[in-house]
Design a protein that fits this description.
Largest sheet of chain B: 3 strands, antiparallel
Number of helices of chain B: 13
Oligomer: heterodimer
Helix content of chain B: 55-70%
Largest interface: A-B, 17 and 13 residues
Number of domains of chain B: 1
Structural class of chain B: mainly alpha
Radius of gyration of chain A: 29 Å
CATH topology of the domain at 68-165 in chain A: Alpha-Beta Plaits
Number of strands of chain B: 7
Strand order of the largest sheet of chain B: 5-6-7
Shape of chain B: globular
Chain lengths: ~200, ~375
């Protein structure tokens, strides 16, 4: 069924068209002068454009950028190679090979470390599940960087060294959550002496 | 024809060509940047020439230059079944007449070569050179005649392209331009009656004699609106860009054109804009008239009382006159672009209805009223 649309009731001034054009021109000319004779970013200028390569918008605080592996105080990775992240990952882009700390190291027999930690950033869907799954706050996406473009696939395969070389947006390699090493007085849980 | 006259004519032709051919790329730039300012954008500002680590962009003025380079290097595609001769001829036919229309437009007052360095006497002697390429006794009718050729270019471009969109665009262009030419001519008849001349230089001096309140826009406001609307329709720009019809005709009559041939259609459109704005300046804005500036200097007088007087050399006054003409034309071009970016497009039937049902009777009425006023006031 055709729908009947009623004609708008125009006043004589509106039907004459010319006064309405003048009104419309008033708006566009006002905008033109407002934007032309004020510099961008100042009061009264309506242009919100950012000149991208020269100017960059800082990402919001909780933006999920490219991953980084956080450090302990001594610079070794916080990661204990528990494989929680690679298990949680829906894109299956994390590959971890666990290894024991060497004989004589305080952590030997207590926790492991990732010998190989590779993230395929092309496969990653940046969902953040790995960060949520991590019990040690070892993997974070707070770098504030998006993946830089490249034409080579190899550039998107981030290994352990690469991931540990990426700082957080504030520049630090550690995290704000304190790490209590076994043997520290602040260590809350069991350690080797008390366990046995 | 003696050598001074030939040299002066060649100089004037060069002046016109330089003004027109520099104004059309500047207009392309203005079109883009102005629309950006209206729409809260930045507009094209990237194309530049790197000079020693610094990128010379001139606020985007080099984009038309980059466009021209691209036009030249693009493939000049001709549809296999197109008429090759007409296809090549159409852009030429649409550009050349619009440039030729400038021949009768006076850019400034008569220049007296013997008095250049001194204050112009009341009755100058020696050789006077009018600052227009040719003073034809049919005056403004010549402009209508040659700019009417523009429709031929658009029509044969649509006809020869072997493309249905082009054909429809060409038909629309022919219909629209022929219709609006009638209104365009009739809207000015009131002005011809008022100025009692067809010569643009006579119209300008009529307005100058009566001061700023004698400008055509105050004496013939209806004719101004009709002629302005008609000239926008003649240049086929929004709100009258039915022949191009990007959304339904994919470019209209120049769908099948690429490279510099397309560039010529675009240039023709912008040059036609300059022509119509120069005409408007002559007929409705006093031409080169500057309020209170006479041929021998400044006479600032109001209500019969003279407040300030200053004599000026003839060359200085002439330069100010030419600058004034160009400034008025540029302001009108700015307004034309402003209208183009403020109004939506008409439908085809609305365009035709507006011409034949409203603008044509209005221009006839304007002739009638002007005639009555002239008859009863006796001036």
């Amino acid at each position: 069924m055709a729908k009947l649309i009623s004609r708008p009731n125009m006043t004589a001034a509106e039907a004459m068209y010319v006064p309405e054009i003048a009104k419309g021109l008033g708006i566009t000319i006002g905008r033109f002068f407002k934007n032309t004779f004020s510099s961008r970013g100042t009061e009264g200028n309506e242009i919100d454009t950012i000149d991208y390569p020269e100017e960059r918008r800082t990402y919001p605080e909780r933006f999920r950028g490219i991953h980084r592996l956080t450090h302990r105080a001594d610079g070794s990775p916080r990661c204990v190679a528990c494989l929680c992240c690679s298990t949680a990952c829906p894109a299956q882009c994390i590959h971890i090979e666990a290894a024991e700390y060497p004989q004589g190291d305080a952590r030997h027999g207590y926790e492991r470390f990732p010998k190989v930690f590779v993230i395929d950033e092309l496969r990653c869907i940046f969902c953040g599940f790995c960060v949520e799954a991590c019990p040690c706050d070892a993997i974070r996406m707070d770098s504030g960087l998006h993946m830089p473009p490249s034409t080579q696939r190899a550039h998107f395969i981030f290994d352990k060294e690469m991931l540990m070389a990426i700082p957080a947006a504030d520049g630090s390699f550690e995290t704000k959550n304190p790490r209590h090493e076994p043997g520290d007085p602040t260590h809350p849980g069991v350690d080797r002496e008390h366990h046995h | 024809m003696d050598s001074v006259l030939v040299a002066a004519t060649v100089g004037k032709i060069l002046f016109v060509l330089v003004v027109v051919l520099t104004l059309s790329p500047v207009l392309v730039w203005a079109d883009r940047r102005q629309s950006a300012m209206i729409q809260d954008r930045v507009g094209p500002n990237r194309a530049g020439i790197p000079i020693g680590g610094f990128n010379l962009t001139l606020a985007g003025l080099l984009h038309p230059l980059a466009d021209a380079l691209k036009f030249m290097w693009k493939e000049d595609f001709i549809p296999p079944k197109a008429d090759k001769l007409l296809h090549a001829l159409a852009p030429i036919v649409s550009v050349i007449p619009t440039i030729a229309a400038f021949a009768v437009i006076p850019f400034g007052d008569v220049i007296w070569l013997d008095h250049l360095g001194e204050v112009l006497p009341a009755s100058p002697s020696g050789r006077g050179i009018p600052f227009q390429v040719a003073s034809l006794n049919i005056g403004v009718l010549y402009v209508f005649a040659v700019s009417g050729m523009g429709v031929v270019g658009a029509a044969i471009a649509g006809y020869c392209s072997d493309n249905k969109y082009s054909l429809l665009g060409g038909l629309r262009a022919a219909g629209q331009m022929v219709s609006y030419e009638v209104t365009l001519g009739l809207s000015l008849v009131g002005c011809f009656m008022l100025y009692n001349s067809l010569l643009l230089e006579d119209m300008v001096s009529w307005q100058i004699d009566r001061g700023i309140l004698g400008w055509g826009i105050w004496r013939q406001p209806v004719a101004f609106i009709l002629f302005y609307a008609g000239s926008i329709a003649e240049t086929k720009r929004i709100p009258f860009d039915i022949p191009e019809g990007e959304s339904e005709l994919a470019g209209g009559y120049f769908t099948e054109y690429s490279g510099m041939k397309f560039g010529m259609f675009m240039m023709g459109e912008y040059i036609a804009m300059v022509v119509s704005c120069a005409l408007l300046t002559c007929i409705f804005f006093g031409g080169w008239d500057v309020p209170f500036l006479a041929r021998d200097g400044i006479h600032f007088s109001l209500l019969g009382h003279t407040y300030f007087e200053h004599t000026m050399a003839h060359w200085a006054v002439s330069v100010i006159y030419i600058a004034s003409f160009l400034a008025k034309t540029v302001v009108l071009l700015w307004l034309t672009l402003m209208i183009r970016w403020s109004l939506p497009r008409f439908r085809y039937d609305q365009v035709m209805k507006m011409c034949w049902r409203y603008m044509l009777p209005l221009s006839l009425l304007n002739i009638f009223v002007t005639g009555m006023v002239i008859l009863f006031s006796g001036s």
